[in-house]
Specification:
single chain; 119 residues; 2 helices; four-stranded antiparallel beta sheet; 12% helix; alpha+beta
């Protein structure tokens, strides 16, 4: 997954913007006169929007909250969004080892124990 966090605001005025081929989410803001990206989750046109490139698709978001809502997997035990590494078991995703164990995992641990018993 490739994340571009630079703003997508075009400093050029209406009618003369040039965007890369395949760019998604660009529209004209009538109140500002600038070309801005539109968030695909909430529809907000925002001058600090960003793109996330994943599996050959370009997504446009105005916040990490919207990006997480659209792209983060959901824990199959507690239904929270998995923002960190998560745990996978038999093709199912969990937010932590605790949730995976509640669903039947026997050997999953959050972290390995280092020599001397430290984590």
């Amino acid at each position: 997954m490739k994340v571009l966090v630079s703003p997508l605001l075009c400093a050029v005025h209406r009618g003369s913007q040039v965007w890369p081929e395949g760019y998604a989410g660009v529209g004209i803001s009538a109140d500002r006169g600038w070309t801005m990206a539109t968030c695909e989750v909430c529809g907000n046109d925002y001058d600090m929007a960003f793109e996330v490139h994943a599996q050959g698709v370009v997504h446009v978001f105005d916040s990490f909250e919207c990006a997480i809502t659209r792209m983060a997997p959901v824990c199959e035990h507690c239904s929270c969004r998995i923002v960190g590494h998560g745990v996978a078991m038999d093709g199912r995703w969990f937010c932590c080892a605790h949730c995976a164990r509640k669903e039947g995992a026997k050997t999953i641990a959050d972290r390995e124990t280092a020599p001397g018993g430290r984590r």
